[in-house]
């Protein structure tokens, strides 16, 4: 049966969005993979299903391209906020990781992504260790910071980002048994007290043009390491996000959300 969808992106991190607020609609992992396939499907990094919520404007169900269901997606949340916000003051999005709220306009959104979780069991890790400087390494990437933004991140700081073979080391780290739920791998280069360059090998999607929760995790990691101030511009391959780790502990993420096209697909 043909199902309408909206193709969107946040700084090139791209999505297929289905609207199931008025009907029963669910997807198998195989169907997610088929839609996400860039050769035979629509092609996307993540896929969302908008469902009814009794505590927010919408429930955002999130799938990675590999078919895995996950609890958080920052760039995607800005896209959903734009779709449901239609210029209203505040938008509330329910996810498996909790409530996201903020403001959306015709170009993007500024969202409170909640407070990061920093304990080793919250990342989660398979055994106890200091998440501020984890005593582990994979090739030239070592001693990351562990941060959970509703999803797990390991953030590595390097002198020269372009020297890092991220497509080689990313999958190795993503699937290391140290991370029972796998992990999103961020590699960051600090440019200034208010600027960081970042690339992310995403769990379940690979190297993406941008990663919203990854940008939040990198900013939190940099502040924990006292490498930057509370407000940081995070420069990703697809563009820049403004991140602020506020005094109240919450992380505010501001950036664009674009509609690419609409279509239908047989499922
Ligand atoms: N790959 C992530 C989900 C998408 C996150 C990313 N696209 C973002 O904008 O935050 C995970 O498995 O946790």
Automatic annotation (TrEMBL):
One GO MF term: diaminopimelate epimerase activity
Feature type site, description Could be important to modulate the pK values of the two catalytic cysteine residues: 153, 202
Enzyme class, UniProt record, top EC level: isomerase
Biological process (GO), any one: lysine biosynthetic process via diaminopimelate
Keywords: Amino-acid biosynthesis, Cytoplasm, Isomerase, Lysine biosynthesis
Active site location: 73 (proton donor), 73, 211 (proton acceptor)
Known catalytic reactions: (2S,6S)-2,6-diaminopimelate = meso-2,6-diaminopimelate
Regions that span the bilayer: none
Matches recorded under Pfam families: DAP_epimerase
Metabolic or biological pathway, per its Swiss-Prot or TrEMBL entry: Amino-acid biosynthesis; L-lysine biosynthesis via DAP pathway; DL-2,6-diaminopimelate from LL-2,6-diaminopimelate: step 1/1
Keyword Cytoplasm appears in the UniProt entry: yes
Subunit structure comment from the entry: Homodimer.
The family this protein is said to belong to: Belongs to the diaminopimelate epimerase family.
UniProt name for this protein: Diaminopimelate epimerase
Gene name linked to the record: dapF
């Amino acid at each position: 049966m043909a199902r309408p969808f909206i193709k969107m992106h946040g700084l090139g991190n791209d999505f297929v969005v289905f609207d199931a607020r008025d009907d029963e609609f669910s997807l198998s992992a195989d169907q997610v993979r088929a839609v996400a396939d860039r050769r035979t499907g629509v092609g996307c990094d993540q896929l969302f299903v908008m469902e009814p919520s009794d505590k927010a404007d919408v429930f955002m169900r999130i799938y990675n391209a590999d078919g895995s269901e996950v609890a958080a997606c920052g760039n995607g949340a800005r896209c959903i906020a734009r779709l449901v916000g239609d210029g209203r003051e505040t938008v509330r999005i329910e996810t498996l990781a909790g409530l996201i709220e903020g403001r959306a306009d015709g170009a993007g959104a500024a969202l409170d992504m909640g407070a990061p979780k920093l304990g080793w069991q919250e990342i989660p890790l398979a055994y106890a260790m200091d998440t501020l400087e984890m005593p582990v390494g994979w090739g030239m990437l070592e001693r990351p910071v562990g941060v959970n933004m509703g999803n797990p991140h390991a953030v590595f700081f390097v002198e020269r980002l372009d020297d890092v073979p991220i497509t080689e080391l990313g999958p190795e780290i993503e699937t290391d048994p140290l991370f029972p739920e796998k992990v999103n791998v961020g590699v960051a280069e600090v440019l200034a007290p208010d600027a960081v360059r970042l690339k992310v090998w995403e769990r379940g999607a690979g190297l993406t043009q941008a990663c919203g929760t990854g940008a939040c995790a990198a900013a939190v990691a940099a502040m924990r390491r006292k490498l930057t101030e509370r407000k940081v511009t995070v420069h990703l391959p697809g563009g820049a996000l403004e991140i602020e780790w506020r005094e109240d502990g919450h992380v505010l993420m501001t950036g664009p959300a674009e509609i690419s096209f609409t279509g239908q697909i047989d499922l």
